[in-house]
Specification:
This protein is of the alpha/beta class. The protein has helices at 42-53, 91-99, 108-119, 164-168, 170-175, 180-198, 213-216, 235-247, and strands at 6-10, 14-21, 26-27, 32-35, 63-67, 71-72, 75-76, 103-107, 128-134, 138-144, 147-149, 158-159, 162-163, 202-206, 226-228. The strands form 4 sheets. Strands 1, 2, 3, 4, 5 and 8 form a 6-stranded mixed sheet that branches. The chain has a 5-stranded mixed sheet with strand order 11-10-9-14-15.
């Protein structure tokens, strides 16, 4: 019987999971990935979760699952990039019943933020840390003295009359073929707005594009220190497992 909690990252194209050593902040076994079903209804995703867990030794340890949407007390309240049937679904109860294990669901950016704060770029940082994930949209996590303030959704701030993520997400850079310099200007405007509202002590910039941080991060003009995320695509799984342990 494995004593490691399990983390699952539910995304638009893939569902990935692994047991996690929450003391070391890393996977305790090789990650497994299964294609996200189409349509990605709650029942279909629950079936994939049970298949994924079946590829690992039996365990009674808790499971954390990320969802790309607002999550309140285990209930999903939004579904921007997943099937609309998720809205108002009690994902905690559904997944717990399907797997026979204690399951806790968390917003995907919040999971990444928890992981970066505990093990990554924001480790041992006091005060307010804002972790952003730049991808199709802009996910965000707010962590104060190690405590998560959930569902911040800072990608949906209105900045200069626009929804921020429509102008400043990595998808906008790709869609409009922006240079790194032009994109950094938009990010400067976005992060300046975040800075004015929240006065964070540190901003962590994540998402897949963070592996190119040296090309755009030095060009962003804000007072707050900006650092690239360090856990990359492991952050969701690790943060989900950590969330489950804390929620149990």
């Amino acid at each position: 019987m494995s004593a490691y909690p399990f983390g699952i990252d539910f995304g638009g194209s893939g569902i990935k999971g692994a047991p996690v050593d929450v003391h070391a902040g890393d996977f305790a076994a090789e990650r497994v990935r299964i294609e996200t079903p189409n349509p990605s209804t709650p029942a279909a995703v629950a079936a994939v979760l049970t298949d994924l867990l079946g590829q690992f030794p039996d365990s009674s340890a808790p499971i954390g699952v990320t969802v790309p949407g607002v999550v309140q007390h285990g209930v999903v309240r939004s579904a921007a990039n997943i099937d609309k049937s998720w809205i108002d679904a009690d994902a905690d109860a559904l997944f717990t019943a399907a797997t026979g294990r204690d399951v806790h669901v968390v917003n995907d950016a919040d999971a990444a933020g928890l992981a970066e704060a505990r093990y990554g770029a924001a480790r041992d940082q006091q005060g307010l840390v804002i972790v952003t994930t730049l991808g199709t949209g802009i996910g965000s996590a707010m962590i104060h003295d190690g405590v998560l303030v959930p569902n911040s959704e800072l990608g949906h701030l209105e900045v200069d009359g626009h929804n921020a993520e429509r102008r400043a997400a990595n998808s906008a850079r790709e869609r409009e073929n922006l240079s790194w310099e032009d994109w950094a200007q938009r990010l400067s405007t976005y992060y300046s707005a975040v800075e004015r509202l929240f006065a964070p002590d540190l901003i962590v910039v994540g998402g897949g594009v963070s592996k190119h941080a040296e090309r755009f991060l030095p060009l962003i003009r804000v007072r707050t220190p900006l650092v690239p995320a360090t856990l990359q695509n492991r952050a969701g799984i690790i943060g989900a497992a950590l969330y489950a342990v804390r929620a149990t």
